[in-house]
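BUG: 3D viewer hangs when loading the predicted structure for this chain

Environment: internal workstation, default settings.
Expected: structure renders.
Actual: progress bar stalls at 90%.

Input used:
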Amino acid sequence: MKVRSLICVALIGVLAGTVPPAYAQRKRDQAAKAPSHGNADYITASQLRDYLSFVASDEMEGRDTPSRGLDITAKFIATHLSRWGLRPAGDSGSYFQQIALRRSKIESRQTYAEFNGQKFSFGDD
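Structure tokens produced before the viewer hung:
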């Protein structure tokens, strides 16, 4: 199956490292001069808290792969990357790339371990 995946998965980590507490007051003072496309020097702790709160919220449903929550989170981050003027590096000039995933499932009724002639059933033992 194909799943959209954000190229810049590390965005939140990058942002987290760009807002030292010493900059907080300077950020408020410079808010009027902040560029419209965004810049790491102008990201406030409050903005970062809001972004992380949204991405980690229950509404994102744990962001399982694949899931509606993962798609919403990816679109949220891609929208911000675009607004901040970062060039996409994904498939067809987007912020996303297609990757093939394989999902395996254990057949619990047919799965067991055997030690010294004794069988142990999956999920029961």
